[in-house]
Structure formats: C-alpha cells, structure tokens
Design goal:
The complex is a heterodimer.
Chain A (H helix, E strand, L loop, with lengths): L18 H6 L10 H4 L11 E2 H15 L3 E5 L15 H9 E3 L4 H13 L3 E5 L10 H9 L1 H4 L8 E7 L14 H4 L6 E4 L3 H13 L4 E6 L6 E2 L13 E4 L5 E4 L3 H15 L4 E4 L2 E3 L3 H11 L2 E8 L4 H13 L8 E5 L8 H7 L3 H12 L6
Parallel strand pairs in A: 2-3, 2-4, 4-5, 5-7, 6-7, 10-11, 10-13, 13-14
Antiparallel strand pairs in A: 1-8, 6-12, 9-11
Chain B lengths: L26 E3 L9 H26 L14 H8 L7 E4 L4 H6 L4 H8 L23 E4 L6 H17 L10 E6 L6 H12 L4 E7 L2 E2 L2 E2 H4 L14 H4 L4 E5 L3 H16 L5 E6 L17 H8 L3 H11 L5 H24 L43
Parallel strand pairs in B: 1-8, 2-3, 2-4, 4-5, 5-9, 8-9
Antiparallel strand pairs in B: 6-7
Helix pairs in contact in B: 1-2, 1-11, 1-12, 2-9, 4-12, 5-6
Classes of the chains: A alpha/beta, B alpha/beta.
EC number (chain A): 1.2.4.1
Catalytic activity (chain A): N(6)-[(R)-lipoyl]-L-lysyl-[protein] + pyruvate + H(+) = N(6)-[(R)-S(8)-acetyldihydrolipoyl]-L-lysyl-[protein] + CO2
InterPro entries (chain A): THDP-binding (IPR029061), Transketo_C/PFOR_II (IPR009014), Transketolase-like_Pyr-bd (IPR005475), Transketolase_C (IPR033248)
Chain lengths: 374, 394
C-alpha cells in the first residue's frame, strides 16, 4: 500500500478544511477509461452477453409486442434504426406508424407524442441526443409534467422521453450536456438513469409500463457496455441499486459515473478502504431508504455526478442529506461534479471538466482519513 | 377604417371548394353563400353563441367582484368561430384550445357550472380548481385542454389526430374516424410549433383542422406589424400558408356563424374521410382587451365600433327572424333559458366548497409511486399525512 499517497486526516476535526484545496489539485491530464468495459469489445467475447443498446432494443421490442398501443417516435428511429441502434430494424416488424420517423422538430413531435399519450397510446419519444430536447423543454415541462395535475387528474401522460446524453468523447459542448439537472425541478416527471445492461432493459420496460411521464437517461458512452439481462424482469423505477457494500463511506453516483467510481474503488480496495457504492438510478425522486440506511452505516457521503455542480442532482441530494441525516454524518457531504463550464472539445479540457477516478480516490481519502489495513 | 374584412369580398377570390385530394392544394376563399339552417340548428347555434357571450360577460362581472383571479381572457365577439366549428363536431371529436378557452369548452358541451366553479377555484370545478381559466380540460368531452403558452396546444392536438390514425390503422379500429380541431390566434402563427405541426399534419395526412382565430391583435401587437405580407399581397394572409404545406387554406368571415359553419363542415368532412388537414383563417375580433388585466389602449375606437356593428350574435338573430326559422318569442325563450343557466352556474360556483388541503398532492402523478420511497422503506404516498397534503415530497 502506497501510504505516501494518503494524506493524514486532520485529527478529530469534524470538517476537513483541506478539501477545497485538494479539489483544486485535480489532475486534469489523467483520464483512464475502463476501456474493456466501456469500449465496443468483440461481440463474441463472452457468450450470452449483450451490449446495452441491444438490451434497450429488446426492452422496446418486448413491450411493443406485448402492447399494441406502445409506439416509438423521433428522428431516425424508423428506417435508420435510431442513432444508437436502439430501434434497429424494428420498423420491419412493426411498421412505419409504430416506429414513426419524425421531421426534425423536437418541440412539435414531443407535443405530438404527449397528445397521443393523453388519448390512449403509450409513447416512447426519442431525443436523438438528449441535448436536442432543450428545444422541447416547454412541452416536457408544461405538458408532460403538469397537465395531469392541471386537468385535475383527467388526463395522464404515459410517455417515456429517452435518448443518449452525457459527456461523450470530444463531441463538443452542445452534444455533451447533462439535462438531468435541467429537468429535475419539473413537477410530475420522474427521472431515471440506467447504467448496466441488466438495469437498462428492466428499467426501460418498467418505464414504458408506467403511467407517469418518465425521462429516461442513457449515456452515449455506455451503449456498448456488456452484460446479461434477466428474462421478463421489471425493475422498480424508484429504487437505487447497491453496487458495492462497504462500511467506510457511501459513494452516491449514477449513469457513467458508476464506472468511474468503480474504477476508483479498485484502487481504494488496494489501499485498504471499504467504500459502499450506490447507483441512484432514480434521480427524481431519490430512494431515501437506501440512501439513509447506507449513510447511517458509513456516516459519510460522497456524491459523484456528471452534471454541473450548480443546481445539479448532487446539489439537491446534498441538501436533502444535510436536512434529514445531519446528525448521522461525521463529515460534510462532498460533491464531485462537473466544472461549471461548457464542455470543451479538446480532450484534455474535456477530461478536466468531468470527474475522474483520481478525484474519487482523493475525496475518499479526505473524508475517511487513513485507511485501516484489514 | 380597418381594411381587413373588405378583403373577403376581393374579386380575386377563387373556388370555394377545397382542392381535390390528389391535386395540389390551393388557397381558396369562400364566397358568401346562403347557408340553409333548420330551425333546430338555428336554435342550437344561437343558444351556443348567446351562452358564450352571457358566460363571458358574467365572468367580467365576477372578476371585478373579486370572485375570480389571475389572467382571464374573454371570448366576446369571437363566438361565431367556436360555435360555427365546434357545433359541427361529434361528441367523440377532439378540440384543443388556448388560454381563451371558456367558450370552446361551452361549445363542446362542458357544463357551464363546472367551468364557472373552476374559475372560482372550487373543488367542483372541471379540473377540481387545479387548472383555472387558462387550463380547462375535460376528458369526458374530448376537450384536450386550454394551453396557456402560445402554440403549445397545436402539437397536442396533432398527437390526438395521430392517435386516431394509429387506432384505425394499427389497432384496426374502423370506428376511429374522429377529427381534432385546434384553435389558436393570429399571434400564434409566427411560432415554431405552428409550422412544425402544419408540416407533420400534412406529411402524415392526419385528421386535423387548424382554426386560426385572427382577431388582429396579439395583446398590443397589430397583426400586420408582426407578420410580413403574403406573396403578392399588401398584408399577411395566414390561410395562404396552408397550400405551402400541402393542405387547403380557407379564409372565412369569422363574424358570420353560417359562413364559419359551412367552411368547417367541409374541413371536418375532408379530415373524417381521411383526406388530411385544413387550415382555416377566421377573421374575427375580440370586443374586450386581451385579458381583463389589459388596459386596451392601442385599439382605435373606430376599429372597435366597426366590428361591434358586425357583432355575430345580433347578425344571426336578424337572419333567424327574417328567414322565419324561429319566432321572436322562441328567441327570447332561448335567451331567458341561457341567462338562467349562467346565473345558476354562478350560484353553484359560489356555493361550492373550496379544495381541501388534502387535494394538494393528488394528481401530481398518475401513479403515486412517482413521489418515491421514504427513509422507512414505504412509498411516500403510503405515509400517514400524505393524503392530508402535509407530507414531504422530496
């Protein structure tokens, strides 16, 4: 164990005053992806294993087969098969009306999907890139989110608004957005972020069956993650996932940050730390049972997110933890978030914008202090 | 003098009939015609228009008496459009409205007392007091709602129309021949959703009727100041945007219910038989300000008087009496009955209970699991206090 890497925690101090300066020492040029996991590996690598886009496609296919009112609309979802192949070839099976290729008009087709859902269909609306849905923000907020309430419960809006989001690889600022923070304060919508092959399929199937409008976040860099799916499985949309059980600190993350955290955890384990990792899955509302139980056990919380620090998911989560679990904490809640800057094109600047495993390691060290070797 | 209505009689008017399906659609103007009304239809139209006017004038009174609040946009003057279009529809047809939605709801048979109670913020309101003046919904009457932001209702109506085609072609429901009428104003015709939806309605050949209620003023913006003239014209004609998107565009005198009715009937029939959408521009005028909060300082007295003289309600009354469709006594009976209905609506609204606090958290989510899981592992909606509206929801 490289003990020299472990700065001693200021003895007996409740709040670690060295934290800010530690964050300022982010190593911007180090960016190691878990390539074997995230990159498109050979398809034959592991028998029975699927890629995430295949799992999402299965979810859509199975739900469309089970219920003829389920349809998918968006740009290039039909003949082209979706920009990340989530509806690849499905139009051949279900026809052009159920796999509706729309013109490029997010505001219009979002509203159309909502109107169709109000009148009896179950509509999956794909944003070719989640960022494009900024153009549909009015329909998502005012219509999907609010009109079940403003109509006094007369109309429901069973839509799944989904698509690829997050910071990809040098896609530039507009294609590298994390809209979860923009959407989280819309009343009446649920936000769900999938992260593994298994939960992508099970959550999307549940989202399609939900009577609530669900904004479903996929991550551009996770479509080729490999894994297995469970036959006929539906996962509750409101439940977080325990990724790793531990006792030192609760690391709360979601979407691609789960992999960044787990990469850090490999190192942390070697250093003698025992972190608990929770994948939030539900970004709104938070699964307060899982979060509370974990923090009561570890007495520390680190939030690792890809969205901006200002007004982000972590901001809300941190506030809730401080409000409801203050006495359970031994250390202030630590947030590792993207920098509040537009995502640059250049590799090094992009890497410096989003959280890297090294920052997670450093944060755990700061919060937990010197690891006690097992 | 305003020049707008004169244009209806311009000699350049072409065939009144919308273009045949396969031929390229052409803008058409409807020539004045003798609409044959039966006494029953005449009675229905007059009652509906009179109800619209009485209801709105009562709203003004109630607003000034402090019985209703917020932004209240009255429809007075435009009744011929709502009545002329919606009274042509079947109960299972859809309509989609704007913030000026009370009278559309009335024409679609939503009970006046439930609309008034909604305006009073009572739990007996059509939306349980959760919607208000600009958000009148009635699923029972296929009223898709009042949409308060400019243009956002148009895609919703398009979605209902898509659903009709889907039900017919994918689900094999041969009874799915409904249509959807979306109403909006001249100001809306410069917003993106309008053009996006004209394109999609035409592209997918959806049973949509787009009804532009051109009352010439978007609050304080005179229509020709906001919209450039159509090609070859001195002023903007919205109906001419129809053919550009592959659908008939029709201009109609929106102060004459018989003309509106005739144009609407043709558009509805066209949509119902699967021949696609129509864009109707009805030239009309609101007799009051944009909302009851609008000082209405920009519209000239002469302009108001000009349209006041064309008030659609006395116009219809005159026609009905001259054509001998109804007697003066029968017309009076209709008026008396309507006045009673509106007074009863006010009484009902006034005496209705206010929403209880427990209603606060109802209908946020169709599935209350959307409120999430509490620290003790129960879904929040299962917690004591949730139904009292006091539960924490984040």
């Amino acid at each position: 164990m490289a003990t020299s890497l472990l700065p001693a925690r200021p003895g007996g101090c409740r709040f670690d005053l060295g934290f800010r300066s530690a964050i300022a020492r982010v190593q911007p040029f180090i960016r190691k992806e878990p390539k074997a996991t995230l990159r498109n590996g050979p398809l034959h690598a592991v028998a029975q294993q699927k890629l995430m886009w295949e799992a999402l496609r299965e979810a859509v296919d199975e739900e469309m087969e089970a219920d003829p009112t389920v349809c998918l609309m968006g740009e290039d979802v039909g003949h082209y098969g979706g920009s990340y192949k989530v509806s690849y070839d499905l139009h051949k099976k279900y026809g052009d009306l159920r796999l509706l290729d729309t013109p490029i008009c997010e505001n219009g087709f979002m509203g159309m999907g909502i109107g169709a859902a109000m009148t009896g269909l179950r509509v999956i609306i794909e944003g070719m890139n989640m960022g494009f849905l900024l153009l549909a923000y009015n329909q998502i907020s005012n219509n999907a989110g609010m009109l079940h309430y403003t109509s006094g419960g007369q109309y429901k809006v069973p839509v799944v608004i989904r698509g690829p989001g997050g910071v990809g690889r040098q896609l530039g600022a507009e294609h590298s957005q994390r809209l979860e923070s923009y959407f989280q304060s819309i009343p009446g919508v649920q936000l769900v972020a999938c992260s593994t092959v298994a939960n992508a399929k099970a959550l999307l199937k549940s989202a399609i069956r939900s009577d609530n409008p669900i904004i479903f976040f996929e991550h551009v860099l996770l479509y080729n993650v490999k894994g297995e799916t469970k036959e006929g499985y539906y996962q509750p949309l409101e439940r977080a996932e325990l990724v790793r059980s531990g006792k030192d600190v609760t690391i709360l993350c979601y979407s691609r940050m789960r992999y960044v955290v787990m990469q850090a955890v490999q190192q942390l384990e070697k250093m003698g730390y025992d972190p608990e990792v929770i994948d939030l899955i539900s970004l709104k509302p938070f699964d307060m049972e899982t979060i509370s139980n974990s923090i009561k056990k570890t007495r520390n919380a680190i939030i690792v997110e890809e969205c901006m620090k200002t007004g982000g998911i972590g901001a809300s989560l941190s506030a809730i933890i401080n409000e409801s679990l203050f006495d359970e904490l031994d250390h202030q809640v630590v947030r590792l978030s993207s920098q509040d800057v537009p995502t640059a094109y250049a590799y090094e600047l992009e890497a410096a914008t989003i959280v890297q495993p090294e920052q997670v390691i450093e944060a755990v060290q700061r919060v937990v202090g010197t690891a006690v070797p097992a | 003098m305003p020049r707008r209505l004169r244009s209806v009689q311009k000699p350049q008017a072409i065939a009144a009939k919308p273009a045949p399906v396969e031929a390229p659609a052409k803008a058409s103007k409807v020539a004045t015609s003798k609409a044959d009304l039966s006494p029953e239809v005449a009675s229905d139209l007059y009652r509906d228009m009179f109800l619209g006017r009485e209801f709105e004038e009562m709203c003004a009174q109630m607003y000034y008496r402090g019985k209703m609040f917020g932004f209240v946009h009255l429809y007075s003057g435009q009744e011929a459009v709502s009545t002329g279009v919606i009274r042509n529809l079947r109960a299972d047809d859809y309509i989609c409205s704007t913030y000026r939605d009370h009278v559309h709801a009335l024409s679609k048979n939503v009970p006046p007392r439930e609309i008034m109670a909604e305006l009073f913020g009572k739990k007996t309101g059509i939306c349980r007091g959760q919607g208000g003046s600009m958000h009148m919904f009635s699923a029972k009457h296929n009223l898709l709602g009042g949409y308060a932001f400019i243009g956002e209702g148009i895609p919703i109506g398009l979605g209902a129309a898509f659903q009709i085609r889907y039900r017919r072609e994918v689900l094999g429901d041969e009874t799915a021949d409904q249509v959807c009428c979306s109403f909006f104003g001249d100001g809306t015709c410069n917003v993106g959703q309008f053009y996006e939806c004209l394109n999609m309605a035409s592209l997918y050949k959806l049973p949509c009727i787009f009804v532009v209620e051109n009352n010439k003023w978007a609050i304080g913006m005179y229509h020709p100041r906001a919209t450039g003239p159509s090609a070859g014209d001195e002023e903007p004609y919205i109906y001419k945007k129809g053919p550009a998107f592959g659908m008939p565009g029709v201009l109609v005198d929106g102060m004459d219910v018989r003309k509106v009715r005739e144009v609407a009937a043709e558009a509805i029939a066209r949509a119902r038989r699967g021949d696609g959408p129509t864009l109707i521009e009805a030239e009309t005028y609101r007799f009051r300000g944009h909302s009851l909060a609008d000082p209405d300082e920009l519209r000239k007295k002469e302009e108001k008087e000009h349209y006041q003289a064309r008030d659609p309600i006395p116009q219809l009354k005159k026609y009905i009496l001259e054509a001998g469709l109804l007697t003066e006594g029968q017309v009076k009976d209709i008026e008396k009955e309507v006045i009673e209905v509106v007074e009863e609506a006010v009484k009902f609204a006034d005496e209705s209970p206010k929403p209880e606090k427990g209603q606060l958290l109802e209908n946020v989510f169709a599935d209350p699991k959307g409120f999430g899981i509490a620290p003790d592992g129960r879904y929040r909606y299962e917690l004591p206090g949730f139904s009292a509206g006091t539960a924490a929801v984040s």
